[in-house]
Amino acid sequence: MSGLEWQFLQEAFESNWIAPLGPQVDAFEQEFAELVAAKHALALSSGTAAIHLALIHLGVEPGDEVIVSTLTFAASANPVVYLGAKPVFIDSERVSWNMDPDLLAETLARKAREGRLPKAVVLVHLYGQTADIDRIGEICLEYDVPLIEDAAEALGATYKGRSPGAFGAAGIFSFNGNKIITTSGGGMLVSDDADLIAHARKLSTQARDPAPHYEHSEIGYNYRMSNLLAAVGRGQIRVLAERVEQKRRIFEWYRQNLADLPGVTFMPEAPWGRATRWLTVILIEPEEFGATREDVRRALEAENIESRPLWKPMHLQPVFRDCEIVGGAVAEELFEKGLCLPSGTIMNEDHVTRVAEMVSDVGKRVLHECA
Ligand SMILES: *Cc1c(COP(=O)(O)O)cnc(C)c1O
Q: Is-contact 164 132, C-beta < 8 A?
C-alpha cells in the first residue's frame, strides 16, 4: 500500500457506500479505462471472473474449443472449463515466452479446414511482458476468432507504446495480492465494445433484467467489486508507474549480480515493448551453472527466501490431461530451467544482492563438490 488508499477509503466510509457498486467503483472504472486507453471498464471480484464473463459474452458453450497459452496460471484456462468448453493449448515462442503466433496460425488454419474454429483465443501476457499482439491479432482477424487478452500479469507494460488489454475484443486484469497493484482481490474487464461491457455488467450482478421487480432471463453471477476495494484500487493506480520503475530496478540489480554467471540467463525483453519485470525470472542451464533450478530454489528456501519455478504448463497439468496441445517443448524447457526470484517492490539493493549472492554460491558450491 502507498498510503493514498486511505484517502479514498475514508471517502467511501464517509459516504456510507460500502456495498458492491458506488462512486468509488465508478471512479475506479473510469480511471482504469483511461490508464489502459480502453473505452470501457468493469470492476469485478477477480480476473478469473473477468475471463469467465468475456467468454460467456462471446458465446462459448459446451463442446466448443478455446485456444489458450499453455505457459500460464490455471486461471487463464479454468473459465473455459466452467462453460463446458475445451481449452486447446499453444506453446510459447522464445522472444517473449508468450504464445507462438506461427503455431496459432497453423492451428487456426487446420481447425478452419476441419470446419471447427475455436470460439475465442485467450492470449496471456506473462510475467509483465506483452505477447506479439499485432501478429496474433491479425491471425485472429483473418479467421474471425475474437481475442481475449489476459493481461493479469502485465498491467504497466507496453506493446508499441500502448497498454496490453486494449487490443483484443476484451482485456482482463487482476488486483490479486501478488499482482503489481492490488485491492487484496479483484479484477477488471476492459473493452471498446459497449455491448460487451454492458452485458458483462448485467451478468456480474445476477443478471437482472430491467424491471421494477426481480426478473431474470439468463443465469447471472455475483462478481462485482465492492466500493471499499475500489477505493483501495484508486490509491494503487496512482503508484503504478512507481511500482514499474522499482520492479525494473530490482531486475537491473539482479542482472548486475548474476549476468556474468555461466549458465544463467534472464527472461528476454521483446523488441516490441517495455516489460514491467513484474517478476525477475532466470533460466539455469545445469551443465554450465553447476546446479539445477531446484538446487537453487532449495538453497534459498533453507534461508527462508521464497522463489518459485515458472508456471507449470497447462498441458502438463493432470486436470487438462485430455486437452489438445500444439507444440509444448519450449514451455516445458522454460518450466524445467526457470526460476522466479523474489521481486517484491519492498526490496532494496542490499536485499537483491543478498539473494543474488546465494544463487551464485549454489553454482559454485555444487561445482566444488563435484571436483
Ligand atoms: C492472477 C492471474 C489471473 C487471475 O486473476 P485473479 O484475480 O487471481 O482471479 C489470470 N491469469 C493470469 C495469467 C494470472 O497471473
A: no
Q: Which of these CATH numbers, 3.30.1490.20, 3.40.640.10, 3.40.50.300, 3.40.50.1110, describes 5-237?
A: 3.40.640.10
* Closest CA relative to residue 189, chosen from 79, 50, 320: 50
For the chain, the domains span 5-237, 240-370
Chain segment 275-315, per-residue pLDDT in tens: 999 999 999 999 999 999 999 999 999 999 999 999 999 99
Q: Do domains 5-237 and 240-370 have the same CATH topology?
A: no
Which residue lies with its CA nearest to atom 6 of ligand 1? 47
Residue to mutate (ligand 1; options 42, 81, 150; most atoms within 8 A of CB)? 150
CB-based contact 168:148 (threshold 8 Å)? yes
CA of 212 to the centre of ligand 1 (A): 36
Q: How many helices, marked H, and strands, marked E, lie in the chain?
A: 13, 14
The values of phi and psi at residue 138, to 5°, are -60, -45
Architecture of domain 240-370: Alpha-Beta Complex (3.90)
Please give all residues whose beta carbon lies within 6 A of any atom in ligand 1, as ranges: 46-48, 72-73, 75-76, 124, 150, 152-153, 174, 176, 187
Q: Which of 210, 205, 199, 188 is nearest to 57 (CA)?
A: 199
Q: Which atom of ligand 1 is nearest to the CA of 48?
A: 9
179 CA closest ligand 1 atom index: 1
pLDDT digits (tens, 9 = 90+) for 119-150: 999 999 999 999 999 999 999 999 999 999 99
Ligand 1: atom nearest CA of 178 is 1
